[in-house]
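Researcher: Structure prediction, please.
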Amino acid sequence: MKTHFLLLGLLSLLALSSCKTPQHQIKRQSTTEMDVYPVEGRNSWRWKRKVTAGEFTADTFKGGWVGSYEFPFFLNFRGSKEKFSFVQRDGQGNQAVVLAVDRFKTVEVPVVRNYFSIPIQYEQLFAGSVYLPARNQSYDFWLNYPDANTRITRTEGYILLPTGRVEITGIQQLEGMSFKLPGNLGYNFLLNGEVIATVDAMNKGMIYLKQDLEPETRLILVAVANSLMQRTK
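Model: Predicted structure follows.
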């Protein structure tokens, strides 16, 4: 059923996007002024990948864990079908280590439920952690149904930050579209109901960030945005 939804969505998207420009296509919810960062290098070879988005750079991509960082997320989830890590840097010399898990193994489902205290279904969750070495602190995130987005399989998740819980929702429309696709073209990050970041996952990718965010918050949001765009669907 999930595959059927996504195929329908892809066919609709191809038909509608063929006559549009490759950027600024998704229907964004935010009316606030945002910094716009086109993404470069997203689809290069992983072993030498370097992804840039304005002042932000992600590198050191690996298909497994970074073993020197031992914190709860790393210790609890080792056996997923897909896992990857990378280092996210901003323009001020700050960095974050990102570890993400997709398509959990069956035996890990009870651990995931206990760790996040959320209802999930097998192979329908994407989750990870952003570790800040300077603070020795990690910030977890999860997203239920990251691909299919319907009344039954709603895309919803959170990033857990000290300043509050940032909600993640899926974007299902292009600008000018009067209906919603059954899959996601990107994602909105909301804090207290306000969109503070948007991920355009189409083509090369685009990241939008609210301008008055703290540098640490911006780094974490970009790290999560990049992890969403690095998934092999």
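Model: The mean pLDDT is 82.
Researcher: Thanks, that helps.
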